[in-house]
Amino acid sequence: MTVSTDGLPPLREVIAKHELRAHKSLGQNFLLDLNLTGKIARQAGDLSNCDVLEIGPGPGGLTRALLAEGARHVVAVERDDRCLPALAEISDYYDGRLKVISGDALVFNPAQHLTRPVKIVANLPYNIGTELLVRWLTPSTWPPFWDSLTLMFQREVAQRIVAKPGSKAYGRLSILAGWRSEAKIVMDLPPQAFTPAPKVSSSVVHITKLDKPKFDCNAKVLERVVATAFGQRRKMLRASLKSLAPDVEDRLRAVGIEPTERAERLTIQQFCELSNQFD
Fold this sequence. Notes:
Blueprint (H helix, E strand, L loop, with lengths): L10 H8 L11 E2 L2 H10 L7 E5 L5 H8 L4 E6 L5 H10 L4 E5 L15 E6 L5 H9 L10 E7 H8 L9 H9 E9 L4 E2 L6 E8 L9 H13 L5 H4 L7 H7 L13 H11 L1
Parallel strand pairs: 2-3, 2-5, 3-4, 5-6
Antiparallel strand pairs: 1-8, 6-9, 7-9
């Protein structure tokens, strides 16, 4: 049994007091081991001079760890109103260093609530995790508002984020993450670490932004080319990219790519060079 070390009640007591049963429809899987939440918070590095954005805090296990690790200010966005009283208790205990926003993370504007430098640390709800990651990796301007992302995903998704060309996991997420940031898996967690236990294992990915992209190209064009290429990943590029231009084979050859090649074999640099052909 995990003993609380921050002066607040153990998470199981918090969940029982507020009757916080995880809802599958909200993608909730609560992490109750405060040793693990503390370890996740430390993967984000020094938090003392940072504002931290957390999505889906639930009963507040990771929230407490972020505050205990010295985060300057934590903004937690929670869609489930049942969790708000438990989070309010944490806010009171930490004397205003926690701001809880009741609402949907997909429509939340972080710029209105955070002061840079900003780190995002979250056990993301499974049902919106990938969409949020893509949004954070593809803002209209770069560098983004965040310095780093420390995020928990299903292990399969985490492996796609860090995958290298030629592997089965390599795809859209690998390229979007690898083009303008450095990503690595820093922790693995088994299903039994969560309540309720999901059917799959989870991993924590740490992503650090780069000041500028590794290769020059238009972000929107790159997104479109990559999405189109991997939308039919088993097909040769001359077929999968045909919808983008009638002379697709000439454009592929112009950057030294054989039209018979497949998307999973191209490096990020090749995708950027190809995107410039379609820009």
